[in-house]
Specification:
The complex is a heterodimer of chains A (146) and B (417). Chain A is mainly alpha-helical and 146 residues long. Helices cover 85% and strands 0% of the residues of chain A. The longest helix of chain A is centred in the N-terminal third of the chain and has 34 residues. The two termini of chain A are 20 Å apart. Helix content of chain B is 78%, strand content 0%. With 417 residues, chain B is mostly helical. The chains are: A mainly alpha (146), B mainly alpha (417). Chains A and B meet through helix 1, helix 3 and helix 4 of A and helix 2, helix 6 and helix 10 of B.
Chain lengths: 146, 417
């Protein structure tokens, strides 16, 4: 498995969790929806942490591009998502369905376009630049946060 | 290597919005002048019909497509137009100057206006193709999306060249019907259809969390379309009716195939909630299938129902698709530009009120239904156009609302010393 495969799979898992949370919300199963939303948030934040704490510094170091390039833009988009999480927390807590869907829409499109850029460009770059250590990196990612 | 992944390359918010606002203004103009000029026309060759069609295709569709491409290229292909502000200004200005001359030329039958309009429009289309292809070729990847984008611009080059040639027919140099048909084929089956396919391949999975389109479709359909279009041009010039009929059937079949796949993928989307955009998408794809089927029928049986097919394809197929995309893109764009500027209070759901989007779309559905009665009761065109006028006004207001929201919130931007 490559870094791109691993990280792309994780994107899809996160997408799936958000849609499940919204389906449950749509069916007025607030408790379950909240749990699923929590799982989505935890998984997404773990994914961000993998990138910000581990993968981006590795790539920046190995490629010599520094931290002000595309990885910086990705970090800024992570910040946008984190700001959205704060609002979504409230909406899910207060069972404010309309607001939760509206914020979910923003989150979905933000993450989708963000993922597209990562999958199209950044992960391919990681696969190439960090090719020698792929095995070791993927293993580390698999156990990340444990 | 990393071009495209910096915020500097995203165009200012005002660029796409200016194109979108102008597009909706053209819709308002179209709804006003439609009853004035079409009460007594019945053929697609009438100058009034040509003028109105171009208000829709150049005034509305082209503005939306150009405005969106400036914004979406960095996201979708990870490459961005250079000197985007300057280029957008040039394209916007010349497109509108050219279009004004062109439309007035057809409506007043003043030939020098037609000529001037044609020169401006051809020039600006070639220029847009040039800067777009230059930008696309900066992409380090040559994936299906890049290939589809290139194909759509190749089709646009041909469409423009044949369109300009057809215009020469109005000065008596060539057979304008023959070249006009090739122009329409390259525009609709080439530029518009391939671009819609390219964007859909990414947008549908992105917006609705749906499955990807099959790679075979993504990598082969555009090639088939381009080959068929070249053969169409050849058959049309040679006036080979049998070959033309076969090609029309094949071109339409490609469109039907794509529309069926779109519906199938949308039906299986993970984000199952229905919203206005999903409804518009289904509506658009259903009309696309219907218009393509009728086109096959008309080609085989040589029945002249081309105005109706054109209406179905443009107003029933392309228009709702664009409307659907606008109501996804504009709120996101507004929110994204604000939060990129650290204005986190803004919320996408508050950019355009859902209620007003629904009103606008319902008015569109109503006007579409009323237009269907026009072949039986010609005076229905007045009522249908009047309803569409209110729909277009609402679309304009909704876009202005987004702009006002942006202007209001951007004042809260925190500037770090």
């Amino acid at each position: 498995m490559t870094i791109k495969d691993f990280m792309t799979n994780m994107h899809r898992e996160c997408d799936h969790l958000l849609t499940q949370a919204e389906d449950l919300l749509d069916n007025k199963k607030f408790e379950e929806a909240h749990n699923k939303y929590d799982a989505f948030k935890t998984q997404t934040l773990l994914h961000f942490a993998m990138e910000e704490e581990y993968l981006f510094p590795l790539l920046e170091d190995k490629s010599g591009m520094g931290s002000m390039g595309p990885t910086n833009v990705m970090r800024m988009e992570h910040a946008q998502a984190k700001a959205l999480f704060e609002k979504m927390d409230d909406a899910y807590k207060e069972h404010d369905t309309d607001r939760a869907f509206s914020l979910g829409e923003s989150m979905n499109i933000l993450l989708q376009q963000h993922n597209l850029k990562e999958e199209q460009m950044l992960y391919t770059m990681m696969n190439n630049t960090l090719a020698e250590n792929t095995q070791e990196i993927v293993e580390k990612l698999q156990s990340y946060g444990n | 290597m990393f071009q495209g992944l910096t915020l500097d390359q995203a165009p200012p918010y005002t660029i796409p919005i200016k194109f979108y606002l102008t597009a909706s203004l053209y819709l308002i103009v179209l709804s006003i002048i439609t009853p004035i000029y079409t009460l007594h026309v019945y053929s697609r060759y009438d100058y009034e019909v040509i003028a109105l069609t171009h208000i829709f295709t150049l005034g509305f569709i082209t503005h939306i497509m150009f405005g969106s491409l400036f914004q979406m290229m960095p996201v979708m292909l990870s490459v961005a137009y250079t000197k985007v502000v300057k280029n957008a200004k040039i394209i916007y200005s010349f497109l509108n100057i050219g279009l004004s001359f062109f439309i007035l030329g057809f409506l007043t039958n003043i030939t020098y206006m037609l000529g001037l309009g044609g020169i401006f429009l051809a020039g600006i289309f070639f220029y847009f193709c040039f800067i777009s292809l230059k930008t696309i070729f900066l992409s380090k990847e040559f994936n299906a999306l890049v290939q589809n984008f290139i194909a759509s611009f190749i089709a646009l080059i041909f469409a423009t060249a044949f369109g300009f040639t057809a215009l020469l027919g109005h000065f008596g140099f060539v057979d304008s019907v023959k070249y006009g048909n090739i122009h329409i084929a390259f525009m609709l089956f080439g530029w518009v259809f391939i671009l819609i396919m390219s964007v859909s391949y990414k947008i549908i999975p992105m917006f609705f969390v749906a499955k990807e389109f099959s790679l075979i479709l993504q990598k082969r359909l555009y090639i088939l379309q381009l080959i068929l279009l070249l053969l169409f041009a050849y058959a049309q010039i040679q006036e080979n009716i049998f070959m033309l009929t076969i090609i029309k059937i094949l071109l339409s079949s490609c469109v039907i195939l794509f529309a069926i796949f779109s519906i199938k993928i949308l039906k299986q989307r993970k984000r199952a909630r229905k919203d206005i955009s999903v409804n518009l998408w289904y509506f658009a794809m259903s009309n696309t299938i219907l218009s393509a089927t009728l086109f096959i029928y008309a080609s085989i049986l040589h029945v002249d129902i081309y105005i109706f097919i054109g209406f179905l394809a443009l107003f029933g197929g392309i228009y709702p698709l664009i409307n659907a995309m606008l109501y996804k893109i504009i709120p996101f764009l507004t929110w994204f530009h604000l939060s990129s500027n650290m204005v986190f209070e803004a919320e996408m759901g508050n950019v355009i009120r859902k209620k007003w989007m629904t009103y606008q779309v319902n008015l569109y559905f109503l006007s579409f239904s009323l237009f269907l009665f026009v072949p039986f009761f010609h005076s229905f065109i007045i009522i249908a156009a009047a309803v569409f006028f209110f729909s277009a006004i609402l679309l304009f207001i909704n876009i202005v609302t987004a702009l006002k929201y942006y202007n209001e919130y951007i004042k809260k931007k925190v500037v770090f010393e």
